[in-house]
Amino acid sequence: MPELPEVETVRRTLIELVAGKKIASVTVRLPRIIQKPADPAQFADALVGHTIQTVERRGKFLRIVLDGLVLVSHLRMEGRYGVYPSEEDVELHTHVLFHFEDGTDLRYKDVRQFGTMHLFAPGDEFTQPPLSKLGLEPLEEGFTLKELRSRLERRKSRIKPLLLNQEHIVGLGNIYVDEALFQARIHPERSPESLTGAEWSRLHEAIVSTLQKAVDAGGSSIKSYVNGQGEMGMFQHQLLVYGHKDEPCPTCGSAIHKTLVGGRGTHFCPACQSLKAGRKMAKAAE
Ligand SMILES: [Zn+2]
């Protein structure tokens, strides 16, 4: 599933491809992608005559901003956008086509069919689902160490599921949570109340630096992910633990373990990210 760096990369490439284009008509081939309005014909009619102004991002959602409308789009597992000449054959698994007046289409393809689109009047998108419940943007100024700690510290859960929960912090998924916890030397099953001040500080820094480096590299190409122009991100070559089961830890040489945490495949170094050491340290700090 694309996480913050991949969605940010799609956003940046989509702006170049569609900003300034006016919609002549819309074809919805798979109605269930359209979540709002409930009637896909109404969705299509509403967009006719509107021009795309910019593309923004909130968490893992794209906000396609038109004159007088906002389209909120989530790619979920394998959704992707591409711009094609309108006369070009429509590929399999293409579910929504935005036909522009200039003879090109923005086409939404999604093999798994889990993606969603919601249409709003400008501003309304922040007051209603799916955006209304989203937490802090980790690459914006409001994401401070103090804010991170105060939001998570007293929660009764393990640290990895908390970091995956988009109501606390947005944009982190399975790959970047594993990477950030490795960089911070924190076991994914630690409880937030067991983390020391130094560990919170390392975690905050690791979240920001992992995501920023991945954005700079154009995201990671895992499975079928490509950006809005069909290009692959390169960050997968910099992943330190994700996808490296049984390989030596880059820090200490121990074999990377893979286990399940909250039902998600989880990579970590049992030596650098010791669960016991964490408990001991937490006790010593009391
Ligand atoms: Zn290690």
Automatic annotation (TrEMBL):
FPG-type domain mapped to chain residues: 240-274
Keyword Protease: no
Catalytic reaction annotation: 2'-deoxyribonucleotide-(2'-deoxyribose 5'-phosphate)-2'-deoxyribonucleotide-DNA = a 3'-end 2'-deoxyribonucleotide-(2,3-dehydro-2,3-deoxyribose 5'-phosphate)-DNA + a 5'-end 5'-phospho-2'-deoxyribonucleoside-DNA + H(+); Hydrolysis of DNA containing ring-opened 7-methylguanine residues, releasing 2,6-diamino-4-hydroxy-5-(N-methyl)formamidopyrimidine
Record note on cofactor: Binds 1 zinc ion per subunit.
The Formamidopyrimidine-DNA glycosylase catalytic domain, residue ranges: 2-115
Membrane-spanning intervals of the chain: none
Biological processes annotated in GO: base-excision repair
Cofactor(s) listed: Zn(2+)
InterPro entries linked: DNA_glyclase_Znf_dom_DNA_BS, FPG_cat, FPG_Glyclase, FPG_N, H2TH_FPG, Ribosomal_uS13-like_H2TH, Znf_DNA_glyclase/AP_lyase, Znf_FPG/IleRS
PANTHER family per UniProt: FORMAMIDOPYRIMIDINE-DNA GLYCOSYLASE
Role: Involved in base excision repair of DNA damaged by oxidation or by mutagenic agents. Acts as DNA glycosylase that recognizes and removes damaged bases. Has a preference for oxidized purines, such as 7,8-dihydro-8-oxoguanine (8-oxoG). Has AP (apurinic/apyrimidinic) lyase activity and introduces nicks in the DNA strand. Cleaves the DNA backbone by beta-delta elimination to generate a single-strand break at the site of the removed base with both 3'- and 5'-phosphates.
Subunit-structure text: Monomer.
Protein name stated in the entry: Formamidopyrimidine-DNA glycosylase
Source organism per UniProt: Paenibacillus oryzae
This protein's encoding gene: mutM
